[in-house]
Amino acid sequence: MVGRDGIAFAIPLLIRSGIRTLTTARSNPQAGTDILWIGLAIVAVAIPRSGFQTLARLNLIGTSRSVEYAIRGDLLRHLFRLDASFWGHTRTGDVMASATNDLNAVRMMLGPGLTSMFESLIALPVAIAVLASVNWRLTVAAMLPAPFAVLLLVRFGGIIRRRFDRIQALFSTMSAAVQQTIAGARVVRSFVREKAEQSRFEGMNRSYVRLNCILGLYASTLDPLLTFTTGISVLIVLWYGGSLVVAHQLSVPNFVMFTTYMAMLVRPIASLGRVVNMMQRGMASVARLQLLFDETPEIDPGAWLEPHEARSNSAQEAAGGISLKQVSVFYGSHAALDSIDLEIAAGSTLAILGESGAGKSTLVKLITRTIDPTIGCISFDGVDCREMPLTSVRTLVGVVPQETFLFSITLADNIALGVGAVPLDQIRHAASIAGLDPDLAALPDGFDTIVGERGIMLSGGQKQRIAIARAILKNPRILVLDDALSSVDSVTEQRILEHLKGVMAERTTILVTHRVATAMRADHIILLRQGHIVEQGTHSALLEMSGRYARLARLQVLEEELEVL
Ligand SMILES: Nc1ncnc2c1ncn2[C@@H]1O[C@H](COP(=O)(O)OP(=O)(O)O)[C@@H](O)[C@H]1O
Ligand SMILES: [Mg+2]
Asked: Does residue 24 have a pLDDT over 80?
């Protein structure tokens, strides 16, 4: 850029010598050829000038793209580290808006924004210095409108930034609305909410357009205003400079050179408006991205281990015993679990029963370390979980969640999600234990069928069986089924559990369920109610107690008899 502008500044000098040659042409027989040479020199100067310009632009714009690439990568890595505490208070749409619009604004600031800013910032002082060396009085006069231009830039800069902030906030809300409408499309349709959702969205969309138009108006007023101030400068130069020429205080060649420099300055000054616009948008976006980057996960993930390291670290010595001591979990001021003491022996099976909201999933989240206890301590084989790297815990524990997410990849890849490349035999085996055989027969391409969002839609029960196969294939020391069989009928549930017997015998298993028929398979049963363990023991001990469990058992036997009828 410096090279480029250095070259550009040679042009008015050449023009000046051209005019000098012309004014002395009568006494100089060489004048014609001199003029030709000067003309050629101007052309020769212009060629590398555009070459420099192209190189400089390519360089800066390439850099801004790499910066954008790096920030986007960092952002995704950062988002992966954030846990439930972050996603609980953030809309997916906001994050999506930041990842697209804010990143774009930052790139514009670093690429075209910085390019134009450097162009202007280098061009202005150099030009002023050259002008002052020709005639400083005329230079000062030409600069008179400058404070007005600065005032304009500052005023408009503030306005643009505030306006852009509002636009980005609205864009976030709109992205969130789009994301939720798509995610909840089925609900929207089944409750005939399309019209209402559409008009709500249309309102936002209209404001978005209106706000953008207003911002565009401000941005596009700035450019002509700046051009107007430079116009006044040119006017001053013509008038005052002209009178200097008449008074023989300024030579004609110098006057022409002066005005040529002035003309060269119009573009960088006018582009300052664009610079301010891009810089202000960029800064607003940087601030918003910074907020996102400042989020920290509530659970310190500890050292990041590759899954195979974590596996070999933990799997060898891990027996799979879990111990909870005086554990409480608060969501705000509400205790989801209250002073729980629980010993789960390695290799045993624990069943957790309780009505919805009792705290069952919260207990599961503790064991998978999705959350940490507010008070108390949970340990695996005697090691406080807070002293274990998060990846070790996650490798130790395999969970079949209440809600499963399937990726738009083949069934086989979905099952092998946690383990990477494995022989199809192993996938087939896991699928078979999970009771997927009848479903497989119905799928067009078997294991190669694409499922999930952009593939075949599966029923809730089928998804759960895939999730079970996923967990089995991962071969964890601790297997957790969080109400994972709730969407299959009780006959299928018992059949799957029968298949799972072998898998469960080798490891610690936790079954969250509301069926007594499932709970009775466990070595130990706990009954949760409002965050407390209200009854616990073996199936027969609990029946003898004639408490809630016994009542539930009687009720469910009755239900089954009714079902048979
Ligand atoms: N992320 C959360 N934020 C606030 N409250 C929650 C959250 N998750 C669960 N709860 C509350 O904690 C209690 C226990 O929830 P949960 O463990 O999901 O129960 P269960 O799985 O037994 O139905 C409920 O009252 C529920 O409303
Ligand atoms: Mg639950």
From this structure: no
Counting ligand 1 atoms within 8 A of each CB, the residue from 362, 367, 372, 530 with the most, and so the one to mutate, is 362
User: pTM, whole model, 2 decimals?
Assistant: 0.72
Mean pLDDT of 535-553: 93
402 CA closest ligand 1 atom index: 21
φ, ψ (nearest 5 deg) of residue 112:
-55, -35
DSSP string, 243-285: HHHHTTSS-HHHHHHHHHHHHHHHHHHHHHHHHHHHHHHHHHH
Question: Which residue, judged by its Cα, is nearest atom 25 of ligand 1?
Answer: 357
CATH of the domain at 201: 1.20.1560.10
Give the number of the atom of ligand 1 that is nearest the alpha carbon of residue 329. Answer: 12
Ligand 1 geometric centre to CA of 118 (Å): 55
CA-to-CA distance for 518 and 399, rounded, in angstroms? 17
555 domain residue, yes or no: yes
Residue nearest to atom 3 of ligand 1 (CA): 331
Residues near 553 by Cβ (< 8 Å), separated by ≥ 6?
516, 543
- For residues 328 and 336, is the Cβ–Cβ distance under 8 A? no
Residue-range definition of the domain harbouring residue 209:
82-294
Q: Is the pLDDT of residue 190 over 70?
A: yes
From the CA of 370, how far away is ligand 1's center (Å)?
13
Model confidence over 235-292: pLDDT tens digits?
Answer: 898 999 999 999 998 888 888 888 888 877 777 777 888 888 899 999 999 999 999 9
**Residue ranges around ligand 1 (CB below 6 Å):** 88, 331, 336, 354, 356-362
Ligand 1, residue 360: give the atom nearest the CA.
Answer: 22
From the CA of 356, the nearest ligand is 1
Q: Across-strand partners of 377? A: 325
Q: What is the pLDDT of residues 391-422, one digit of tens each?
A: 888 888 999 988 888 898 999 999 998 787 88
Task: Report pLDDT digits (tens) over 318-330.
Answer: 788 999 999 999 9
121 alpha carbon – ligand 2 mean position (Å) = 61
Does 288 share its domain with 315?
no
The verdict on 335 and 274 lying in the same domain is no
Q: How many angstroms separate the CA atoms of 234 and 71, rounded?
A: 44
Residue-wise pLDDT for 164-183, tens only, equals 999 989 999 998 888 888 88
* Nearest bound ligand to the CA of residue 352: 1
Q: Looking at the structure, tell me whether residues 492 and 351 fall in a common domain.
A: yes
Tokens of 232: 């006044």
